[in-house]
Amino acid sequence: MPLPIRRIMRRRRTRLATVFVLALFGILNLVQIRPYLSQPAAEVTYRVWERRENIYIASIHWNDEAILRSHWNEAVKNLALALGRDNVFVAVYESGSWDGTKEALNELDEEMERSGIRRNITLSRVTHLGEMSAEDRDIGWVDTPRGGKELRRIPYLARMRNLALEPLRELARLGITFDKVLFLNDVVMLQWLTELWTNDVLRLLDTNGGDFAAACSLDFSRPPLMYDTFALRDAEGHEVLTKTWPYFRARASRQAVLDNIPVPVTSCWNGMVAMPVKPFTSDPPLEFRGIPDSLAASHLEGSECCLIHTDNPLRDKKQTYVNPQVRVGYSGKAYDAVHREVITRSFGSVFMALWNSRIRRWTTSPGLKEWIVRRRVDKWCRQGEEREEGGAVCLIDEMQVLVGNGWAHV
């Protein structure tokens, strides 16, 4: 056979092989993502009502007037009524807002009074500036590169969250018990989508049949980008691979997303979280916390919403999950977008997302960042007796402090 013909045949065989391999990848990917593409529309989860669970709803707010008035107040009231006023207690802690948050929460208090919903709404007059001017600067403060001692953001937030749980412990002392705590961020719960929102909550509470150490939603501010990555760690303790689907680096977490089933993770928060009550009412109780100030001085920080999972005594017996079927947003537009995703997703877009995930896994590694954190934690442990940080998986190379109008990196 003449040489040119041989070359032509080799090229044809190469092209056919390439086409065959690409087709094979396409078929495998189609099989892989079929559960995701065929996800059904929202359905009411009845099993929560069948279990007759009592739910303690906890939330903290700061300068949230617009969100409260536009949707949050009415939606939380409707949620409490849907779950059953005898089965619910709503606890809200507000921390020194300067807008109309206090007035909006007073209105919620009055609405819940008229509806017969048990609640505790606490309004604090202490602003960020007031917290920052405290004379006692022993705990929760850190020397920063700016040359001063500043109030750390995370211990402050941990204290606010613990205050929102105080009524739970007081009720327990009175013999009034609950099954789950539902933590709510300032996420959108549209009034005209109350039934859909209630389905979101019921589906979250029913994650893995209601058997979990914690169950979290997915949250979005600018879809398709996931919002909260500070507290989220996959099943192997890594930060998210990408803010877009399928999110995770660890195989177990990523495969669960592809199968559209509860995703095993080390920690999460992401807008809405359900946890069993028992650890919070045990002696000693599970509490939100920050890492020690002396460790934070090494330019490390970890979310209180991640540390609560690494401290949770249930973590060795039960799994923490992200439920990919429960998606919340921080605006009406975001909420609508992540619920329309069920209808608008296409094979092509999902196929591209899978390849983006593969390429990132092949070309990037969290090893360097995790090594930097481990080295600083190990050094801190050697500098004092009985020093230990069980939540090292939550730590990142940051320093966060409170400022008058919010918080800042330093």
From TrEMBL:
> Pfam families, per this entry?
CAP59_mtransfer
Matching InterPro entries: Mannosyltransferase_CMT1
Superkingdom of source: Eukaryota
Q: What is this protein called?
A: Polysaccharide export protein
Q: Which organism is it from?
A: Ophiobolus disseminans
